[in-house]
Design brief:
Elements: H1 8-25, E1 26-28, H2 30-42, H3 63-71, E2 73-74, H4 76-86, E3 91-103, E4 114-117, E5 128-140, E6 148-155, H5 162-176, E7 183-189, H6 196-201, E8 208-213, E9 218-220, E10 239-241, E11 253-259, E12 263-275, E13 278-289, E14 301-306, H7 319-327, H8 331-341, H9 353-372
Parallel strand pairs: 3-7, 7-8
Antiparallel strand pairs: 1-2, 3-5, 4-5, 5-6, 8-14, 9-10, 11-12, 12-13, 13-14
Length: 388
């Protein structure tokens, strides 16, 4: 069914995307993988992996469903570069980075399983599970919406940390989009990335790095100028403790605004602060206070901002720009939930971790196809669902 807003350009873009995926991303078991992708898009909420073989779009026997994932080959490097080019080439583009587990607690012979944090009852009363951690770098397609489109999804092996894999993903994105000088790409990261070790690994890229900081951090100001006296020059400046306002210097930038969602907001920014063991990685610190009209406002949000190199000349980055980029990252949570609950990302129980990787990439492609097909379908919500 076509909407009135459907244009020939929208249809052609979807066709070109599908053709590119078929011709370049799928290297082995191409037809079976493409049929599986179409079956995934038309089945609605996936009740079981095997039931995808019963849809009209999957034209093979059910055993080909598993053979496609277990024996198929996808060009992951090409796919990451291709998806990076689908993001707009101008303006501010926000890329949340986060992690999500694929629980496999009962697959005892599966290779390279790890203890992964998750709110589950598998191990230790509901704090960890056993399975595979995945690192997800995504694009916030629309502000104030739940559309989060995967750009780079990788399994974190036991020989690496999530921060190391995340740094590799960010570098790959920066290289793929290096020619887009009019675009400001902002990586919005959670608290586990808010440290000098991670920021050092991504310093100097064309992407701006934005990470949440713990509210009990203690940083240092810029080193004072040399005094000319003998001895080693000072490396650290004045103490800056988040929980001690008397240690704060005068902010380099202050903005107060009224937001329809966040109420009265006060944003403060201090430039060139650093950690005790990270004097070589100075960054800006942002303090965001929201809902100031309440008698008891929520605790302030602290953020670290590492500016890109170089900064696009056509874009002015203020403390409000940085704050709004971070609050846009919430859509990655909705995107992960959609992939798990509707597309059945973590439902199958494959025999190898490589098959899980291929299925993960297929669900990522499916998200893009659904997003591109939106102008061509009519929204038909159930009576209790909100019309978009």
């Amino acid at each position: 069914m076509h909407n009135q807003g459907t244009t020939k350009k929208d249809i052609n873009k979807l066709i070109e995307f599908r053709q590119a995926i078929y011709a370049n991303a799928l290297l082995a078991r191409r037809d079976a993988l493409f049929d599986l992708l179409d079956a995934l898009l038309s089945a609605g909420p996936v009740s079981s992996f095997a039931m995808l073989s019963q849809t009209d779009q999957f034209r093979r026997k059910w055993s080909s469903l598993y053979a496609a994932v277990e024996d198929g080959v996808l060009d992951s490097n090409w796919l990451r570069c291709f998806l990076g080019h689908q993001v707009p080439q101008q303006g501010i583009c926000v890329f949340p980075i986060d992690g999500s587990p694929w629980p496999r607690p009962r697959s005892r012979v599966l290779d390279d399983r790890q203890y992964v944090y998750q709110a589950t009852s598998d191990v230790n009363g509901g704090t960890v599970t056993i399975g595979y951690p995945y690192s997800l770098l995504e694009w916030c397609a629309e502000p104030h919406s739940s559309w989060s489109l995967p750009v780079d999804v990788r399994r974190v092996p036991s020989t690496h940390t999530a921060q190391e894999v995340g740094a590799e993903q960010i570098k790959a994105l920066a290289n793929a989009r290096i020619a887009y000088v009019e675009a400001l790409d902002i990586i919005a990261a959670d608290g586990k990335y808010g440290n000098a070790g991670f920021l050092r690994s991504v310093k100097g890229l064309r992407c701006g790095i934005l990470a949440r900081l713990r509210c009990d951090r203690v940083l240092c100001g810029p080193a004072p100028p040399p005094t000319g006296k003998k001895g080693r020059p000072r490396v650290h400046g004045a103490r800056f403790a988040f929980k001690e306002p008397e240690t704060w210097s005068t902010p380099d930038e202050v903005i107060e605004l009224e937001d329809p969602c966040w109420g009265q907001v006060r944003l403060e920014r201090w430039n060139r602060l650093h950690e005790k063991k990270g004097a070589d990685v100075p960054y800006a610190v942002i303090r965001a206070n929201v809902h100031l009209e309440r008698s008891q406002p929520p605790a302030a949000l602290w953020l670290a901002w590492l500016s890109p190199d170089p900064l696009p000349g056509s874009i002015t980055v203020t403390v409000e720009t940085i704050w709004r980029a971070y609050i846009s990252r919430w859509s990655v949570e909705a995107g992960i939930h959609f992939r798990k609950e509707t597309l059945g990302w973590t439902m199958p129980r494959f025999q190898t971790k490589e098959a899980g990787d291929r299925w993960t990439e297929l669900t990522a492609i499916a998200c893009w196809l659904l997003y591109l097909a939106r102008p061509m379908v009519a929204d038909t919500p159930l009576p209790w669902q909100k019309l978009q």
